[in-house]
Amino acid sequence: MEVTSIPADTYKVGFFGAGKMAESIARGMVRSGILPPSRICTAVHSNLTRGHAFESFGVSVLPDNQAVVKDSDVVIFSVKPQVVKDVILQLKPQLSKKQLLVSVVAGIKLKDLQEWAGHERFIRVMPNTPSAVGEAASTMSLGGAATEQDGELIATLFGSIGKIWKADEKYFDAITGLSGSGPAYIFLAIEALADGGVAAGLPRDLALSLASQTVLGAATMASKSSKHPGQLKDDVASPGGTTIAGIHELEKSGFRGILMNAVVAAAKRSKELSPS
């Protein structure tokens, strides 16, 4: 099958689904200068608030999904796993082999997406909610007919909302359990750290600010340092000091095992979402 290259300077991106994830990705594209808002579109069927959110930064809100297909070179499916099959089958007659199809839907495999769409020029991407602040951790896997140039295009687009890696699709359930669901685990940790600060006597606002900034700082050190996280932890934990006393309590409660179990449970649920 011959694959037509996406026009380098004039391509348009359309979103099926106008939720928070689609909005975050579109905002990142505009904010980074990768695409002007005039070359991005979506459709909103009932929730006018979602339409206003896209229009607020210049994205076109079209009458229906068929209009989005007609006006897009890159089509991004950003809907719930339970409805993505119906959406693709409904739009299948309008989809063209010239278009690059992208899914950010959790748990739905490329082989199913390709079968429903009727062609294999599909790329699956797993972003996460920090895309809203330009700090996403995304991973992509290319379908059978997607070219390296297609992959480079998607790496550029999703690179506008954070960092992106390429991986075999067999890892995607684990990726969903780690980076897809992981922000929620960190939000819980921030809340718990702040509660601990309050319990130790801090005002609530100060405790929450310190907890949030501490997590941000630690994550930045882990991502930018050449040291293993275990070494960074050791650097903080002086003999007989306050940090090792706190770590001892975490270990007694099975802190690391709990986080590991959370990732495995979320990965298991991701597998269950797949129809095949």
TrEMBL record:
SUPFAM superfamilies: 6-phosphogluconate dehydrogenase C-terminal domain-like, NAD(P)-binding Rossmann-fold domains. GO terms for biological process: L-proline biosynthetic process. Pathway: Amino-acid biosynthesis; L-proline biosynthesis; L-proline from L-glutamate 5-semialdehyde: step 1/1. It is found in: Cytoplasm. Signal peptide: none annotated. One of its GO terms (molecular function) is pyrroline-5-carboxylate reductase activity. Keywords: Amino-acid biosynthesis, Cytoplasm, NADP, Oxidoreductase, Proline biosynthesis. One of its GO terms (cellular component) is cytoplasm. Its main location: cytoplasm. It is an enzyme of class 1 (oxidoreductase). Residues 12-107 form the Pyrroline-5-carboxylate reductase catalytic N-terminal domain. It catalyses: L-proline + NADP(+) = (S)-1-pyrroline-5-carboxylate + NADPH + 2 H(+); L-proline + NAD(+) = (S)-1-pyrroline-5-carboxylate + NADH + 2 H(+). Its EC number is 1.5.1.2. The keyword NADP applies. InterPro entries: 6-PGluconate_DH-like_C_sf, NAD(P)-bd_dom_sf, P5C_Rdtase_cat_N, P5CR-like_CS, P5CR_dimer, Pyrroline-COOH_reductase. NADPH binds at residue 65. Residues 169-273 form the Pyrroline-5-carboxylate reductase dimerisation domain. Belongs to the pyrroline-5-carboxylate reductase family. HAMAP family: P5C_reductase (MF_01925). This is Pyrroline-5-carboxylate reductase. It comes from Punica granatum (Pomegranate).
